[in-house]
From TrEMBL:
Pfam families reported in the protein's UniProt record: Lactamase_B (PF00753)
Domain Metallo-beta-lactamase per the UniProt entry, residue ranges: 75-244
InterPro entries on file: Metallo-B-lactamas, RibonucZ/Hydroxyglut_hydro
CDD domains to which the protein is assigned, alphabetical: YmaE-like_MBL-fold
Organism: Planococcus rifietoensis
Protein known as: Metallo-beta-lactamase domain-containing protein
Amino acid sequence: MNKFICNTCGVQTESAESAPEHCSICTEKRQYVSVKGQSWTTLEEMVQSAAYQNEITSEEQGLLSITTVPSFAIGQTAYLVQGENFNILWDCLTYLDAPTIEKIKALGGIDAIALSHPHYYSTQVEWAETFDAAIYIHEDDKQWVTRPSDRIIFWSGETLKVAEGFTLHRIGGHFKGAAILEWKNGDDGKGVLLTGDIVRVVADREWVSFMYSYPNFIPLPASTVERMAEQLDEIRFDRVYDAFHRIVLTDAGAAVQRSAKRYVDALNGVLFKT
């Protein structure tokens, strides 16, 4: 019996004697199946290959980024956020090995894992079992869980206070249950949002964007982006970290609002003529 991992998205399945024919995450229109075809690995195979390592980097006081080198699957960044006697892992990575475990335990371990959306579920149960942590996923994305666990807490509603200083907000968009993490004490108390790619920082770091599917270039409706912008306008934050280590360093709240307007104007045909 193996817990197979899709090589394209990095999400792990529950134990099975043979690999599934298809990855349910990748066959859905927001993701894709590799042009080389469906292929699988396991965490044990990845560790035994000695091809990967996780780099843990301090981003600011109380925030560390975790990335797998070389990049695997989607290649997202996870973040370890340190609160008052409470550490939360924002989004997750597929690769987990002994050096990573040792480093994170030295940093105080992980008390909770919170996920933005299904593309980053990866080996979340492996991480949760290793660090004795709960997993928080919005109930609207329950159908996408490929490895069930009693550690998963399916939360409901629009907000959830996970611990002092940490609040999850369901803002939808990319997925119905798509969530972001508000870290109230981040950026010297000015507030930080960790957004996965529910809110994606663009190339110049002064703007953000929103998409239904990034690899397939499917935009969100204007009305959805307007609603998301209204919800985000109610949160106090000065900085945004996205899933690919891009950061809006200052005045991120204003950047989100002007970006949402630009996006809507583009969809409505008033931003440009071409």
